[in-house]
UniProtKB/TrEMBL annotation:
It comes from the Bacteria. It holds the Pfam family gpW. InterPro entries: GpW, GpW_sf. This is GpW family head-tail joining protein. Gene3D superfamilies: Head-to-tail joining protein W.
Length: 69
C-alpha cells in the first residue's frame, strides 16, 4: 500500500470516527491493523499528520515555534 493510499484510508477512517458512523480501523506503516475509537481520535490525527509529513505536505497544525533572540 502506498503512502497516498494509506493517507486516503486514514482520512476516511478519521471522518467516520468524527461523524460517529463507526469505530474505525486502519493499517499502519508496519502493516498492523489499528482500531480507533473516539477516545483516541488524537492518535489517528497524529498518524495522518505523520503520513502528510512523509509525503512532504504541510499539515497546518502542530505546536507553534517561537524564535527568540
Amino acid at each position: 500500500m502506498t503512502l497516498e493510499e494509506r493517507l486516503a484510508e486514514a482520512d476516511a477512517a478519521y471522518h467516520k470516527l468524527l461523524t460517529g458512523r463507526s469505530v474505525s480501523e486502519v493499517v499502519d506503516q508496519n502493516g498492523e491493523r489499528v482500531r480507533y475509537t473516539p477516545a483516541n481520535a488524537f492518535r489517528l490525527s497524529a498518524y495522518i499528520a505523520e503520513l502528510k509529513n512523509q509525503l512532504g505536505r504541510s499539515t497546518g497544525s502542530g505546536p507553534m515555534r517561537f524564535w527568540g533572540r
